[in-house]
Design goal:
4 copies of one chain form a homotetramer. By secondary structure, the first copy, chain A, is α/β, with parallel strands linked by helices. Chain A has 5 helices and 8 strands; from the N terminus they run βαβαββαβαβββα. Chain A has a 7-stranded parallel beta sheet with strand order 4-3-2-1-5-6-8, with helices on both faces. In chain A, α1 (about 15-30) crosses α2 and α1 crosses α5. Chains A and B meet through β4 and α3 of A and β4 and α3 of B.
Chain lengths: ~160, ~160, ~160, ~160
């Protein structure tokens, strides 16, 4: 049972069609690879990636901020309520063997930073560029397509 | 998707054969009723109820205290790591539409009390008797068999 | 700085005059002994013990469930917001070198149980009697007066 | 009591002399302004800002990641243990009416992002530059000196 791969996918909640389409494709490819998709369980990227995964026969887990499963989108195989508010972001990324980030605002930045604290690999598709005052390294592995995102995440997760 | 019933099962970590057998039977009956079994994911009652459920074709979620899925027992369909230590007890019971408690020590008492704070129905099979200084009501619905525990929990969860 | 003694005081939120008077006296005595009083920061026992402590020149910390300090009672020297809801109960008791429980309902039971999980000594003044199915020991040290509660808590805290 | 101003200060744990000196000066100025200084309670910027504040007669609160107050640095007036690990970062910044960030790595980025989610003003002194893929606004108010950092934070906190 413990050999299942879990991939966390994080990103914006208010996203355009191009991001939605990318997220669905990421979900579809993760499902085909047999990975469990973990998200924050709500709208935007979480909904699109879960829809893509479930429609391809995959499994999706949503880690919700409140107390009610009603908050979850319609494409969660299983949901977990936490009543932790935005503090549940930490639990979302902690549950990925790797994280894929698409688009996103401060919530996504918060999740990327938490993954980097924990040493979880982060793959970025059109998301935050991190540049520290005096540091040049690029902590997020930047990719250009959903295919590349999933392939890279699965490779790093296996690492 | 949201019509799935989730039942949290809590109890001792160091249990005798009679309790183990009861917990396995509870898991089996919950699986047959189509309920998702949520536990703290580790030993004792959590392992026995998950084993019973999974062997009967059910789904089990383990909400783990640490950062590693390796902590989980071998009968978890999916696990969620939290890094919250014993504070994750709150998340275990919050995820049940009803809670079944078997045997158990202070961890179980902590979980029963949290469920009662939240208004989640608690069914007790050989567990703590709660008697408040000046109150006579019995907050935990006491039952005598696994069959009665599952039937009562599912009825109260539907409530 | 690290030699300060912290005592957590937990109890009911809707309490009668006798309990209020006991809680105020507990606060007063803890302040005179130089202990920092930690509570959940809201009404009932938390407010009374904080009032007693602050009026006697002591220091009180309130660990609040929400995001706003406005939730706190008027006798907190300093407050800490958590946005953890009732899950913050764990943090309240974790911050005591010993815990004093007065009266109280399920929230207090939840806190007593957490303290016992953590091995933090619990002194009870008119609160829950814990009796496990097949266990006769009394986990909570029962006392009859505020003086005895404070004296016992300070002795056990010094461990 | 509720009119006290709380300012959270976050930053690197392994910092050079220049950053240490800046942090001490920030602490000193916050103490003189009567603000309570909230930090993660450990080394680097947290220790330096707390030292500066306490030596100037101020009050410092440290929100610690583990269970033991021994983890805290020597300049905490009061400490709060959480057993939340790095997830306690959320509680540190949530307790500021404004946040001052100095230097720092991913932990600091995580805290800045959380403050921005919550709408808490962030003042940056030699810390992360945030630039979102398609956004040009600068979410962190950038300053050049400790004086400017404290003055700006207090002004925004009053906002």
């Amino acid at each position: 049972v413990s050999t299942i791969r879990y991939i966390a996918v994080v990103g914006g909640t208010d996203v355009d069609e191009a991001v939605t389409s990318h997220a669905e494709e990421v979900g579809r490819l993760l499902a085909r690879a047999g990975a469990v998709v973990v998200t924050g369980g709500r709208q935007g990227v979480s909904a699109a990636v879960s829809r893509g995964a479930v429609e391809a026969g995959g499994i999706t887990l949503g880690i919700l901020p409140g107390r009610s499963r009603e908050e979850g989108n319609h494409w969660l195989s299983y949901s977990v309520v936490t009543d932790l508010g935005d503090t549940r972001n930490a639990i979302v990324v902690m549950n990925g063997d790797a994280v894929i980030a698409l688009d996103g605002a401060y919530g996504t930045l918060n999740e990327i930073a938490r993954a980097l604290i924990d040493g979880v690999p982060v793959v970025g598709l059109g998301t935050w560029e991190l540049r520290r005052h005096a540091v040049d390294d690029e902590a997020v592995v930047r990719v250009s397509t959903p295919e590349e995102a999933v392939e890279t995440a699965l490779r790093l997760a296996a690492g």
